[in-house]
Amino acid sequence: MRHNKKRGMKLGTDASHTKAMKKSLIVSLLANDRIKTLEPRAKAIRGDVDRVITWAKKGDLHSRRLAIAKVGDKEVVREVFDKAAQGMWADRNGGYTRILKLGPRKGDNAEVVIIELVTEPVAPKAAKTSVKKVEKVAEKVEKTEEAEKVEEAPAEEATEAKAEETDAE
Prior knowledge:
Layout: H1 15-32, E1 34-38, H2 39-58, H3 61-71, H4 74-85, E2 97-104, E3 111-117, H5 131-168
Antiparallel strand pairs: 1-3, 2-3
Helix pairs in contact: 1-2, 2-3, 2-4, 3-4
């Protein structure tokens, strides 16, 4: 049962420290575009960073105030809103962050990662075509071409025969 369970990751600390740590990580990530941290912390702030960027893409006053409440730094929020207004994430509908694993930390074997903002444009996915489908289509085209040649040949012979008959008369 889920009686009295809070949502989100606790990250091994009490609620106020977790909230402060997440705010600090979000500010660092938005200010520097890339930070090195532990994997659970990166996964914990990923949704909050995406939410702030979505608000920045909206660009209205209410969204700006929500972002300032979430981040806590007006200058960083202004920079993010300026980047969004310039179209940095205009073609992207989510997934504004990327997590790259670096491996375990030497002292306590904790998984260290780099979390960064994605800046490159979205590449459209290519249509999936298997080799078998392409071969089947090629076979169908060849069969139709052969059928057309077979149909044309008797028609040409018939016209040639009629032409010879008229010449003979």
